[in-house]
TrEMBL record:
Subcellular location(s) of the protein: Cell membrane; Cytoplasm; Early endosome; Recycling endosome
The entry's keywords: Apoptosis, Cell membrane, Coiled coil, Cytoplasm, Endosome, Leucine-rich repeat, Membrane, Phosphoprotein, Receptor, Repeat
Cellular component, GO annotation: early endosome; plasma membrane; recycling endosome
Any one GO molecular-function label of the UniProt entry: integrin binding
Cross-referenced PROSITE patterns: LRR (PS51450), PX (PS50195)
Residues in coiled coil: none
Subunit note: Homooligomer. Interacts with GRB2. Interacts with PIK3R1; probably associates with the PI3-kinase complex. Interacts with IRS4. Found in a complex with ITGA5 and PAK1. Found in a complex with LIMK1 and PAK1. Interacts with ITGA5 (via cytoplasmic domain); this interaction is direct. Interacts with PAK1 (via kinase domain); this interaction is direct and is increased upon activation of PAK1. Interacts with LIMK1 (via PDZ and kinase domain); this interaction is direct. Interacts with LIMK2; this interaction depends on LIMK2 activity. Interacts with RAC1 (activated state).
Annotated GO biological process: apoptotic process
Descriptive protein name: Nischarin
SUPFAM superfamilies in alphabetical order: Outer arm dynein light chain 1, PX domain
Compositionally biased region (Basic and acidic residues): 433-447
Keyword Signal: no
Length: 532
């Protein structure tokens, strides 16, 4: 196998061929271009694999190829261009191959409405060819006319541009660093760009009137590079239609048709003011970047879906002022330890908080009162290893616990039963907390009283009135699960006529029923039961 190294300007690549490939090439060139038949080194039958013959043939084949290129200085014949892989790496060869492909399949691709995939190197070749100002069909073959490419790109609606990491093929060409112009596309509705350099992409803004969906991944270091590349030319700019204040050096048209933008997997560190140019955005994906603060999103009045997962967010204070009508919010994979900034996102339906640093169950209360929340994800947070984690989280949603799907798992009836018990216990704790201070005051007043309460012998038995400090009955009822914690005061008649100071009571849950117990004063029989 002979390894051929081809150089075209700063681009280099290698091609491997056997002697038989050279022989086939030569036969075609003799037939098509009438070159000298004796130009190719002859075959050898005896000793063809000897080292000396191989070295001599290598030098002769080098001379053969150099002679061919000198014979055709402007445009290499098609067979020679393919032999040297010009259709992969050389500008004229690339555009000729693309033009021929679109001549044969272009109408079919446009009619099917499919996404057309093209390489950055191909776009670079077309851009360079147009800048050279040469005839659109230098080879003389109508199928390779550059006009087939321009006609196709004017009508194409769905485009995908995918580069490569590292050198392309056997060449030294770094596709992701090549500049290219997208202004030849006049009707784009959707574009996907990956592994390119956003700073080297020109003409994308020409699609502002028609582009509805855009994805730029593994390509950008800022949002400005994509949305307002001309911003670097002006000190102060404002979007078209905005009220102009102060010194404005440029008014930039907005992306009036853009509703979905994917800028994930880039190196974006901030949500800058370029979002003013995408006022109709509904879906925004900024995941897998380095965003530190949620900012400037108050300009996106139509935003309903926001993905900020796997960034560097550590706090959410005041986020409700930036995300007024958000319905789906993905904050997974950040550095969040507090959820206090989410308590006013009243339209929120879906919330992903997995892979963060949330430790305290109290943090969940910030989202427990959101009226529309239906799906919550909290996996891989420190609090997710707490015993009975699911039921304790669901209990924070109160009466809406049955409407919430936690960690993509439907809530079971058993979990809802446990949630009801936890809610009853929580209410009892709250009651006990409220009683602690008033009861202490009443006890002190009883000890300081000089006149004991004595029932006259002639009067009928009396019932001690319910203490004003005791709460009214608390009822929690859902289906056949109920817990009643009645506030009650027993009759002390017949047990000495003296009513002791109120004493605290506790609620004990047994088998789904409640029982109230109190410490018994001296001389009072045990055994009073309260149905619950």
């Amino acid at each position: 196998v002979y390894i051929i190294q081809v150089t075209d300007g700063s681009h280099e690549w290698t091609v491997k061929h056997r002697y038989s490939d050279f022989h086939d090439l030569h036969e075609k060139l003799v037939a098509e271009r009438k070159i000298d038949k004796s130009l190719l080194p002859p075959k050898k039958i005896i000793g063809k694999n000897s080292r000396s013959l191989v070295e001599k043939r290598e030098k002769d084949l080098e001379v053969y190829l150099q002679t061919l290129l000198a014979t055709f200085p402007d445009v290499a014949p098609r067979v020679l261009a393919h032999f040297l892989h010009f259709h992969f790496y050389e500008i004229n060869g690339i555009t000729a191959a693309l033009a021929e492909e679109l001549f044969e399949k272009g109408e079919q691709l446009l009619g099917a409405g499919e996404v057309f995939a093209i390489r950055p190197l191909q776009l670079y070749a077309v851009t360079e060819q147009l800048q050279q100002g040469k005839p659109t069909c230098a080879s003389g073959d109508a199928k390779t006319d550059l006009g087939h490419i321009l006609d196709f790109t004017c009508r194409l609606k769905y485009l995908k541009v995918s580069g490569t990491e590292g050198p392309f093929g056997t060449s030294n060409i770094q596709e992701q660093l090549l500049p290219f112009d997208l202004s030849i596309f006049k009707s784009l509705h959707q574009v996907e760009i990956s592994h390119c350099d956003a700073q080297r992409i020109r003409g994308l803004v020409a699609s502002k009137p028609t582009l509805a969906t855009m994805s730029v991944r593994f390509s950008a270091t800022s949002m400005k590079e994509v949305l307002v590349p001309e911003a670097s030319e002006f000190d102060e700019w404002e979007p078209a239609g905005a009220a102009l204040e102060g010194t404005v050096t440029a008014v930039i048209p907005t992306w009036q048709a853009l509703t979905a933008l994917d800028l994930s997997h880039n190196s974006i560190s901030e949500i800058d003011e370029s979002v003013k140019l995408i006022p109709k955005i509904e879906f925004l994906d900024l995941s897998h970047n380095g965003v530190l603060v949620v900012d400037n999103l108050q300009h996106l009045y139509n935003l309903v879906h926001l993905d900020l997962s796997y960034n560097k967010l550590s706090f959410l204070e005041g986020v409700h002022t930036k995300l007024g009508n958000i319905k789906t919010l993905n904050l997974a994979g950040n550095l969040l330890g507090s959820l206090s900034g989410l308590h006013k996102l009243y339209s929120l339906v879906n919330l992903d908080l997995s892979d963060n640093r949330i430790e305290q169950m109290e943090e969940v209360r910030s989202i427990g009162s959101l009226p529309c929340l239906e799906h919550v994800a909290l996996l891989n947070n420190p609090l997710s290893i707490i015993p009975d984690y699911r039921t304790k989280v669901l209990a924070q949603f109160g009466e809406r616990a049955s409407e919430v799907c936690l960690d993509n798992t439907v809530t079971t009836e058993k979990e809802l039963d446990t949630v009801e018990v936890l809610k009853a216990i929580q209410k009892a704790k709250e009651v006990k907390s409220k009683l602690s201070n008033p009861e202490k005051k009443v006890s002190e007043d009883s000890r300081l009283s000089a006149a004991p309460c004595v029932r006259p012998s002639s009067s009928p038995p009396t019932v001690a009135p319910t203490s004003a400090s005791l709460p009214q009955p608390i009822l929690s009822n859902q289906g056949n699960r109920s817990c009643t914690c009645p506030a009650w005061a027993p009759s002390w008649a017949g047990v000495g006529g003296e009513m002791p100071a109120p004493v605290p009571y506790t609620v004990q849950m047994q088998g789904g029923r409640g029982a109230v117990s109190t410490p018994a004063p001296l001389g009072v029989a045990h055994g009073w039961g309260v149905p619950g």
